[in-house]
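Can you give me the bound-state structure? Components:
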Amino acid sequence: MIKATIHVTLKPGILDPQGRAIRQSLDTLGFSAVRDVRVGKFLEIELQEDDPARADAHLKAMCEQLLANPVIESYRYELERHPSHPAAPS
Amino acid sequence: MIKATIHVTLKPGILDPQGRAIRQSLDTLGFSAVRDVRVGKFLEIELQEDDPARADAHLKAMCEQLLANPVIESYRYELERHPSHPAAPS
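Here's the bound-state model for the whole set.
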């Protein structure tokens, strides 16, 4: 089992209306020190796969085909191996 | 200037319909090794603040009041100090 954590963020220079709305809301709430807010996605995916190289290839394809819009978004991911049958906690 | 990176995720056990939809789409695309998908938010906030303790207090309040729904979501954040007037790249 491999667990992947993926960050999808807007590329620099791409307008972020959601971030702007949050910044305005924070300002209204009194958080006037906030200068900029950028919003992205964070995904955690569990893969039934033990080969890190294959998992890596799958992840790249998933990001390119579905999880990110490569025109306006960047992505990065980390893979972490988990035992398929975790030991009982001590 | 302090830069905060914030992760907001659904608490364990809370149904994640967006994650389920993504898992089904990935399955349709042929990624049958995917076992589970959980979707969260990732925010980057720039604060005009130099005191880490105050920035930390602000961040906690922002998360509790606006960025996360503490009933169903968890949050975590990291703070990173940036020079207010960054040096020119060498």
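A couple of observations. The first helix of chain A runs from residue 17 to 28. Chain A is about 30% helix and 35% strand.
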